[in-house]
Amino acid sequence: MLFIFFWKFVSIAVKEIEIKSITLYIVVNEQGEIIMDILKLKDFTEDFLWGASSSAYQCEGAWDEDGKGPSVQDVAPVMKGTTDWKVCSDHYHRFKEDIALMAEMGFTEYRFSIAWPRIIPDGDGEVNPLGVKHYHEVIDECLKYGIQPVVTLYHFDLPYALQEKYGGWTSRQCIDDFVRYCEVCFKEYGNKVKYFLTINEQNMMTMFNMGGYKTDKERYQANHHMLVAQAKAMISCHNMCDAWIAPAPNITCVYPLTSSPEDYLAAMDYDQLRNRLYLDTVCFGKYPEAFALYLKERNAFPDIEEGDMEIMANAHPDFIAFNYYGGSTVKYVSEEEGRAAKEKMTSSKANMEEFMTGMMTEPGMAVGCKNPLQEETSYGMGIDPVGLRITLRELWERYSLPLLITENGCGVPDTLTEDGKIHDDYRIDYLRKHIKACQQAITDGVDLMGYSPWSAFDLVSTHQGITKRYGMIYIHRDEFDLKDLARIKKDSFYWYQKCIKSNGKNLD
Q: What pLDDT is recorded for position 36?
């Protein structure tokens, strides 16, 4: 908020000046002297995509219905005191009701994922016609309301059969199986879906070792196989249909904790490992050199077969989708201190802060730490709308591709009042600040296609169950009591509805 104080009354005038399509409001006094100038923000484009996101394993439920095979998420242990993935929000059975509510909010897009083991239950065998039929119905329901489906092909839910058969992404066989699955989707849905996303948050799966890999070498080998699979899927998409296709990493703005040269370099290196690796490879067809050197020094650089890099160089994304939740702050850490932090993370006595510190540690490079200047949610996640503006500008300037925000949200325990309401002013404030940051980035010259926060309705969070709620629609259940699974509109529902109707002009 800008406060302007005038010590004496003066006669002023406001003049509008347009310079290279950027409008400035110049406030002058009666002598023609400039008192202040205000940048007028550009409007969101008329075809701007307003919506929200979800993922199959976090919302569908029906984990073993209609021929679906188990995914690695279905068999993975969950944190004590949290629910599993068997019912979630019951979106599989209630998608028509949920999409109708999205239409009521005014959505022009809905980003969701297709469950690979619902299409091919064992990952590499027969196609499941009931699974194919279900997503036709979901897509058709979106189109009925003028909602553009944005389809993620892979969102953490690898068919468990492939993990058991050959170790999942550690095997090159997974490349061919993933491409075959993608091609089934392109064939079935390519004439209806305009936007496909390849792999959700591949960088998070790799950096936080979501595959349970035993060594860094194994971890980055699996990552390489995903990169090659992604490239092949992009080429197949362009050959088989007219849709656009993009990667979907989680991108953060990386800050040094202090102004020391060591911390600045740590932030630079961590940005390359955390962000640029996944976008440079898909956009430029090569690994960042400093990243490659870092892994080679640790005997962790992947084995690359002849033709892999050529495939990656020949695959071209049409845009970049990315998830953004907040900034990351790091400081330099020595090899010894970094390894100690990693070892402490695995200790049975490690607390949550020690665990997260270990997860964000790269020995000899950087360790994650709290930013004293950054506001946080009740779950300790940073709230950094300025970081979103920075991220949008950096991505646009480096890759020159249209951008789509596919996740951004505020996860907190919402309280259902006695009169059946959810007053989530904190979520409204979060969304308002980040949408304003989007508009500022557009004014900066960024080509931003749309904004799709996480999420339309409450989902089961990957780590904190249903208690950590992100939705603008409340799902009436708790961790272990399904209650009636009723859909209840939060205050943020009506606020976002108003925002969309005004095309981002009304953020009050």
A: 47
Burial of 356 (0-12, 13-18, 19+ CB in 10 A): middle
pLDDT digits (tens, 9 = 90+) for 481-503: 999 999 999 999 999 999 999 99
Two structure tokens written together for 394: 């950096």
What is the pairing mode between strands 328-331 and 254-256?
Answer: parallel
Candidates 109, 188, 218, 407; catalytic one: 407
State the Cα–Cα distance between residues 316 and 434, nearest whole angstrom: 29
Q: What is the mean pLDDT of the chain?
A: 91
Can you tell me the distance from the alpha carbon of 121 to that of 131, in angstroms, rounded to the nearest whole number? 9
CATH topology assigned to domain 41-327+371-501:
TIM Barrel (3.20.20)
* pTM for the predicted model, two decimal places: 0.91
Tokens 């981002």 sit on residue: 504
Residue 253 clears pLDDT 90, i.e. is over it:
yes
> What does the pLDDT look like over 219-247, one tens digit per residue?
999 999 999 999 999 999 999 999 999 99
Identified catalytic residue from 201, 289, 353, 362: 201
Domain chopping of the chain, boundaries: 1-40, 41-327+371-501
282-298 pLDDT, tens digit per residue, is 999 999 988 899 899 99
pLDDT for position 342: 79
Phi first, then psi: give them for residue 473, nearest 5 degrees: -125, 125
With residues binned 3-state (H G I as helix, E B as strand, rest as coil), the percentages for the chain, rounded to 5, are 40, 20, 40
**Residue bearing tokens 């079935």:** 188
Q: Identify whether 375 is a catalytic site residue.
A: no
Tell me if residue 407 is catalytic.
yes
Phi, psi of 506 (to 5 degrees): -100, 100
Burial letters for 295-328: b for 16+ Cβ neighbours within 10 Å, e otherwise? beebeebbeeeeebbebbeebebebbbbbbbbbb
CA–CA distance from 434 to each of 53, 210, 385, 428, 453 (Å)?
A: 16, 28, 5, 10, 10
299: tokens are 């005997």
| d(C-alpha 200, C-alpha 338), whole Å | 28
Q: 19 pLDDT band (50/70/90 cuts)?
A: very low
